[in-house]
Amino acid sequence: MAKLIYSAITSLDGYVADENGNFDWSVPDEAVHAVVNDLMRLVGTQLYGRRLYEVMVAWETLDVVDESAVTQDFAAIWRDTDKVVYSRTLPTVSSARTRIERDFDTDAVAALKAGAQRDLLVGGPQLAGQAITAGLVDEIHLFVSPVIVGGGTRALPVGRHLDLELLDEQRFANGVLHLHYATRG
C-alpha cells in the first residue's frame, strides 16, 4: 500500500502563510528545492485544495527553459503526476492529469491509497488537516524556515493530538530545517 505524505514549507511558528496570505518568505533555495524534488519524485498522485492548486497550476505552462536544472526538474515532476483537486467552487481544471472531487471522502482517499502503486502527497493545510484528522497521513515532511510570521494559515490542524516518530532531519545552509516524521496514530 502506498503512503499518504503531507509536506509543507512552514515558518518557525508553524504557518504556511502570514495573516495577509503572503508566503514569499518560503521560497526554497536550490538545495531545499532539490530535496523537495526528490520527495516529489516518489509521488504518483497529488491531492490539492483549491487555493494551493491555483498557486501550483502555474507549473503546467511555466516556461522553465532558462531556469535552473532544479526548477526544470520540478516542473517536469509536477506535470508528470496525477492531481486531484478538492473544491466545491472550482468549475474546471486547467492542467493535464487532473480531476476535481467536490468533497474530501475519507473512504475514497483510503481506497485510492490502498490501490496506488506510488505514494500520494496531500498539499494545502486545510485538506491535509482533514487527512490527518481522519488518520490517513503516514508521513509528514516539514521544511521549517528561519522566520516567525506571527499568525496566518497554520501548517498543522489545531486540536488534534498525533504522536510522531522522527525518521530524519536535514539542515540547510540557508537556515531551513527539514523534519521527516512517521505518524503513530
Layout of secondary structure:
Elements: E1 4-11, E2 15-17, H1 30-41, E3 43-49, H2 50-56, H3 69-79, E4 82-86, E5 98-101, H4 106-115, E6 119-123, H5 125-133, E7 139-145, E8 153-154, E9 164-171, E10 177-183
Parallel strand pairs: 1-6, 1-7, 3-4, 3-6, 4-5
Antiparallel strand pairs: 2-8, 7-10, 9-10
Helix pairs in contact: 1-3
Quickly count the domains: 1
Q: What's the end-to-end separation, in Å? A: 17 Å
Give me the Rg, rounded: 16 Å
CATH class: Alpha Beta
Name given to the CATH homologous superfamily: Dihydrofolate Reductase, subunit A
Helix tally equals 5
**What integer is the average pLDDT?**
96
Please indicate the percent range of residues in DSSP E strands (runs of 2 or more): 25-35%
Description:
The protein has helices at 30-41, 50-56, 69-79, 106-115, 125-133, and strands at residues 4-11, 15-17, 43-49, 82-86, 98-101, 119-123, 139-145, 153-154, 164-171, 177-183. The protein is globular, with a radius of gyration of 16 Å. Strand 9 (164-171) and strand 10 (177-183) form a beta hairpin. It has a single domain, classed as Dihydrofolate Reductase, subunit A, CATH 3.40.430. Helices cover 26% and strands 30% of the residues. It is an alpha/beta fold. The mean pLDDT is 96. The strands form two sheets. It has an eight-stranded mixed β-sheet, sandwiched between helices. The chain has five helices and ten strands; from the N terminus they run ββαβααββαβαββββ.
